[in-house]
Amino acid sequence: MKLLGIHHAAIICSDYPRAKHFYSKILKLKIINEHFREARHSYKLDLALPDGGQIELFSFTGAPERPSYPEAQGLRHLAFKVSDVHVAKAYLESQGVNVEDIREDEITGKKFTFFSDPDNLPLELYEV
């Protein structure tokens, strides 16, 4: 077996219209498909990342909150590649998104920062 990359990351949101706006309008991810699944009373929104990966955004009634702070076991955060972390940070802040100070990775020397989606899911910008 040879893994070829990550195909998608799935995210469950608490407020579908708010999350859809955040990922498609603020993060500017292209909508591939949007489906309302009647049997589950749930939306599934497929969003394209520029490198071919995808984010699947789900809405499930009654889904419990994810413990992000303090950090819990499991997936820690989702990181997006950017060419200039300063420009990306400034853009997000202009959209009303709180972004942490830019730091430098002690091992790679690359710049990065964190912000959160509307459900407080930790997201990272990593300069490549």
UniProtKB/TrEMBL annotation:
This is Glyoxylase I family protein. One of its GO terms (molecular function) is metal ion binding. CDD domains: VOC_Bs_YwkD_like (cd08352). The keyword Metal-binding applies. Gene3D superfamilies: 2,3-Dihydroxybiphenyl 1,2-Dioxygenase, domain 1. Keywords: Metal-binding. The gene is yaeR. Residues 5-128 form the VOC domain. It holds the Pfam family Glyoxalase. PROSITE patterns: VOC.
